């Protein structure tokens, strides 16, 4: 395996990498920095866009631009003009909550969670935004719902329950977007950090970034640890496959909460990494709306 830091962006809370296959560029957010970043790993060309609120994550739109899960709700954002068009704010009555991680399924539905920003109370929920902009709440009772992904056959949806150090699995109905049969897919030991963002590869294995774990773990479809990839930063946050052949794993990281001594020991904290991991990903779906 080879690893390189493609951008020492020094993000406060880097998150949500997503590969744009048409542009061949990687998008990711800095939640606490209120920005979305874009880079071309090949040429090194980069761009950053400041936002009016904290972005939990972004999804790519088929019509161009981004769907952004802001702190207060979901909006369309055009990086070219800077325009923001609001879609929904379902938790205006819960000021301590913010939107967090999310992803589109292969029918273009956008699944996204909300969390207690103080990471103490189970006030978070999981929502589904349909292509016609209907919003449906699916689950409640989470402190920090996190990384989302689907098996290659669309029959399983994965959802990270970070505070409880668990990756959950659900039976998934791709025609309707319904989930059922909640179960624990994998748990993370206390000394391995907390599971954060995830992605699923073409073999149905789940790659999970471990906050405070200095690693990304690959789980086989049965939830067993297949591989541990060590990283030079303590707080990797999420991962996504990209590159022309979807054979590169991109990993975001955070610097938030690290002491001066910890940052001196891990100076690339907040950077974005490209790894050759001998695996390939699945194409990133676009939101059609």
Key phrases:
globular, mainly beta, 4-stranded antiparallel sheet
Write the layout of secondary structure elements.
Layout: E1 2-7, E2 14-20, E3 25-30, E4 35-39, E5 46-50, E6 55-60, E7 66-70, E8 74-77, E9 84-88, E10 97-104, E11 110-116, E12 124-129, E13 135-142, E14 145-150, E15 156-161, E16 166-173, E17 178-187, E18 194-200, E19 206-211, E20 215-219, E21 225-230, E22 236-242, E23 248-253, H1 260-265, E24 272-276
Antiparallel strand pairs: 1-24, 2-3, 3-4, 4-5, 6-7, 7-8, 8-9, 10-11, 11-12, 12-13, 14-15, 15-16, 16-17, 18-19, 19-20, 20-21, 22-23, 23-24
Structure, described:
This protein is mainly β. The protein is built from 1 helix and 24 strands. Strands 1-24-23-22 form a 4-stranded antiparallel β-sheet, with no helix packed on it.
Short description:
The protein is mostly beta strands. It is built from 1 helix and 24 strands. The protein is 2% helix and 52% strand.
> What fraction strand?
over 45%
Element order, helices and strands?
A: EEEEEEEEEEEEEEEEEEEEEEEHE
Provide the helix percentage. Answer: under 10%
| Major beta-sheet overview | 4 strands, antiparallel
Global structural class: mainly beta
Shape: globular
**SS element count, helices:** 1
Radius of gyration using CA atoms only? 17 Å
In order across it, which strands form the biggest sheet? Answer: 1-24-23-22
Mean pLDDT over the full residue set:
97
The stretches of 5 or more residues where confidence is low (pLDDT under 50) are none
Count the E strands. Answer: 24
- Gap between N and C termini, in Å? 38 Å
């Amino acid at each position: 395996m080879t690893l390189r830091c493609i951008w020492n962006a020094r993000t406060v809370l880097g998150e949500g990498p997503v590969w744009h296959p048409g542009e061949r560029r990687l998008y990711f957010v800095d939640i606490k920095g209120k920005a979305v970043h874009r880079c071309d790993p090949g040429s090194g060309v980069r761009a950053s866009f400041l936002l009016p609120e904290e972005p939990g994550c972004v999804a790519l739109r088929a019509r161009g631009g981004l769907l952004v899960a802001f702190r207060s709700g979901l909006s369309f954002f055009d990086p070219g003009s800077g325009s923001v068009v609001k879609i929904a704010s379902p938790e205006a009555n819960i000021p301590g909550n913010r939107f967090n991680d999310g992803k589109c399924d292969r029918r273009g539905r956008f699944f996204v969670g909300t969390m207690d920003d103080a990471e103490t109370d189970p006030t978070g929920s999981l929502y589904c935004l349909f292509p016609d902009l209907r919003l449906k709440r699916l689950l409640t009772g989470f402190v920090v719902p996190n990384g989302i992904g689907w098996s290659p056959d669309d029959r399983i949806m994965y959802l990270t329950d970070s505070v409880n150090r668990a990756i959950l699995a659900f039976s998934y109905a791709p025609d309707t977007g319904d989930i059922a049969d909640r179960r624990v897919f994998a748990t993370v030991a206390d000394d391995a950090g907390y599971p954060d963002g995830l992605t699923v590869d073409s073999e149905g294995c789940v790659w999970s970034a471990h906050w405070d774990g200095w690693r990304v773990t690959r789980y086989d479809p049965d939830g067993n640890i297949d591989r541990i990839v060590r990283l030079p930063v303590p707080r990797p946050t999420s991962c996504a496959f990209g590159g022309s052949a979807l054979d590169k794993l991109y990993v975001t990281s955070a610097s938030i909460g690290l002491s001066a001594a910890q940052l001196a020991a891990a100076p690339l904290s907040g950077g974005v990494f490209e790894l050759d991991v001998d695996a390939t990903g699945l194409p990133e779906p676009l939101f059609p709306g």
